[in-house]
Amino acid sequence: MNGTTSVTANPYETDLNRHAANYQPLTPLVHLERAALIHPDHIAIIHGSQRTSYAMFLERSKRLANALGSVGIGKGDTVSVMLSNTPAMLEAHHGVPMTGAVLHSINTRLDAQAIAFQLDHAETKVLIVDREFSAVMAEALALAAAKPLVIDYDDTEYPDDAPFAKGERIGTHDYDTFVSAGAPDFIRSAPDDEWDSVSLNYTSGTTGNPKGVVYHHRGAALMGYSNVIASGMGRHPVYLWTLPMFHCNGWCFPWTLGVVAGTHVCLRWVRAKAMYDAIADHGVTHLCGAPIVMSTLLNAPETEKRDFSQTVSFNTAAAPPPEAVLAGMADAGFEVVHLYGLTETYGPAVVNEWKSEWSKLDRSERTARKARQGVRYPALEDLAVLDPETMENTPADGETIGEVMFRGNIVMKGYLKNPEASAEAFRGGWFHSGDLGVMHPDGYLQLKDRSKDIIISGGENISSIEVEDALYKHPAIMAAAVVARPDDKWGETPCAFVELRPGQTLSEAEVIEHCRGLLARFKCPRSVVFREVPKTSTGKIQKFLLREEARSLGNP
């Protein structure tokens, strides 16, 4: 021996290398490709009188990708869309990433100024816009520095009795003409790496300044499998689009349905009759939505309701549904699945996985179990309640409050062009949700408060700070604070507490009208309370007192 130590090579790490044959980047694009290969004639999309097979769905997505490539779109470019739940939106979810570009879905409820910010921040190269939204988009384009190629989507199934008339064409291309010019035999090369970006979604966060949440191909692919498991989907489910596809990419369900060759049933507006007709006529088995969708279904006039034989799985997020709502949904033929997540976690990342023995508990105990957000999604590696200062787990006693944190492959890449916010969100090796909760001894999470002061109304996030900023722009208002007020229909609505300057007078209607001139309609206060706004000795508004007062007001 010469004094040296012999190191034996690990045989499991020797001559066992990655090759194209044994390693491919994960991508949600394979879900559609597989479904089209195996079930080419199965109906993939129902939209009014239109029926699109899986073979045609894939072909149109390829044509869109090729057409986008012909105008210079490639890896790293942003294609923005402002579309309703229509076939074009489903095609965009596949055709855009086939080019290596990133899909940016714009909230159709935003005002022009917010849209303009997103177009500029995303550096939009191509914009596809539904004619329903052409007026606000034209205004946004006039405000934006970005000058994208604009493509009009003219929905041929737009109903004659629609509450909103189509707007004027504002683009230089027609969507169907543009897609038809693309090659049907386009072969995608994207992604080069599963870490490549697939989509961009803006969230208001804790202030009125939007942050661009970036998803990667790996996470979107894994969400496809996880959604199938969490939703209990079998082969060929029929999915009704009550959830906006612009919201976290429709919780990734535009990609999910391909895993099980399901049928997308498009729905432009959430209306009771249209939902019941779709459920009864098309055999809908699954849908997602905020509590407002449940209220719409349950409170519909009897003349709009339809009988159906199948049990429909309803995935809902935000606040846990009251027992009376759950009972009403069960009586109406729906099975409610409670989910929780954030834009930063690709939508739902936690599911209240119901245990059969819980159904035998008395009503109060069942309600207590249903109030929990639940356990981690199959694709989420870890879910915890931690002390944000020490980053230690809080006791799993159902009482000790900490911050809810996530870790795994369905957590965002980060915030676009915002390294400081990304670093803060990922501090300590966890994604900090900003939500406060407790962990129960059985490992089920339950939220207790939202430290970000976000109001969730009808499934949409509203920044209280953004609304307060609008209120402070009124010359008669000296102090203002906005908190959530419980609402049976919307889950929560903004409630404004307003302190007027001496000698000034305002009515509730005047305050609301002032906000409507500065904010999207859904962000405006639904109720206004005139009073001295409580503050600490240092002048900080005591929102916890106002939250209690808003809760005591009951439903509007």
TrEMBL record:
One Pfam family it belongs to: AMP-binding_C
Catalytically driven reaction(s): 3-(methylsulfanyl)propanoate + ATP + CoA = 3-(methylsulfanyl)propanoyl-CoA + AMP + diphosphate
InterPro entries noted in UniProt: AMP-bd_C (IPR025110), AMP-bd_C_sf (IPR045851), AMP-binding_CS (IPR020845), AMP-dep_synth/lig_dom (IPR000873), ANL_N_sf (IPR042099)
Enzyme class (EC, first level): ligase
One Gene Ontology biological process: fatty acid metabolic process
Keywords: Fatty acid metabolism, Ligase, Lipid metabolism, Metal-binding
GO molecular function annotation: ligase activity; metal ion binding
EC code: 6.2.1.44
AMP-dependent synthetase/ligase domain location: 32-416
AMP-binding enzyme C-terminal domain mapped to chain residues: 466-540
NCBIfam families per the UniProt record, alphabetical: PRK08162.1
UniProt name for this protein: 3-methylmercaptopropionyl-CoA ligase
